[in-house]
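Input structure tokens:
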């Protein structure tokens, strides 16, 4: 696995950088947050992965949404031999920094350690044809959609006002990416809302026919496995692994992404 961010020279400036970017609600909390960040890095480098996890986790729970923080959490959990949590944080980081090569390398390595092979997966052709959805963060796609739409409508207004034909090729050039990025952003929101995914956290998880501990065990999943969340009732989730494996698990045993 790779430790790009942890070993970066800019970490010497971590306290100042953290104070500049963290969305803290109370300014007096900033020094404490920076201290937690540096303590987590120091603990990781010393091999004290439990302490590193504790420090980074507190930052994540404070409301900081950072791909680098999630990446570091994944690294610490992987070093601590807690595969389920490592995969979970890598998946969360991947949504914020999808094109990061070190993250993708460590994420693939962690997934290679999983016992359960996914029964359904995105087809390679889809990843080629719609590559931008897998290389860009959702926010980036939204901004691109806004930018291309704005450029298209401004060009259309100029053409209407000036009545010049040379603007037609520009309109056609702008229309396609505007349509593609708008459709991609809409689909991403739809998928996040109606097709929630989660990661199995413990080493082994029994999926049962009902929501009680004595319900029939249907099958067993292992750490790091991605499942689809179909419904929630109380403190249990109905999850699906593939097309036919469906059952109930405690909500605390899986991490939503």
């Amino acid at each position: 696995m790779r430790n790009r961010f942890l070993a970066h020279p800019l970490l010497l400036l971590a306290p100042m950088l953290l104070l500049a970017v963290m969305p803290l609600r109370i300014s007096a909390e900033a020094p404490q947050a920076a201290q937690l960040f540096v303590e987590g890095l120091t603990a990781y480098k010393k091999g004290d992965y439990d302490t590193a996890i504790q420090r980074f986790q507190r930052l994540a729970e404070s409301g900081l949404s950072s791909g680098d923080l999630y990446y570091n959490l994944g690294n610490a959990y992987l070093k601590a031999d807690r595969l389920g949590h490592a995969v979970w944080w890598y998946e969360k980081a991947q949504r914020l920094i999808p094109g990061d090569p070190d993250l993708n390398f460590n994420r693939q390595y962690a997934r290679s350690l999983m016992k359960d092979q996914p029964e359904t997966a995105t087809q390679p052709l889809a990843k080629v044809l719609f590559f931008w959805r897998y290389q860009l963060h959702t926010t980036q796609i939204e901004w691109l959609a806004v930018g291309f739409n704005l450029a298209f409508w401004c060009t259309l207004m100029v053409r209407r006002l000036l009545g010049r034909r040379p603007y037609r090729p520009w309109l056609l050039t702008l229309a396609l990416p505007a349509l593609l990025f708008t459709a991609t952003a809409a689909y991403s929101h739809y998928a996040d809302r109606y097709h929630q995914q989660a990661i199995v956290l413990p080493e082994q998880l029994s999926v049962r026919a009902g929501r009680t501990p004595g319900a029939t065990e249907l099958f067993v999943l292992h750490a790091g496995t991605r499942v689809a969340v179909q419904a929630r009732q109380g403190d249990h989730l109905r999850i699906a692994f593939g097309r036919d494996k469906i059952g109930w698990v405690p909500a605390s045993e899986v991490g939503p992404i």
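The beta strands are 197-200, 204-208, 217-222, 226-233, 236-241, 245-250, 254-256. Residues 38 and 64 are 15 Å apart (CA to CA).
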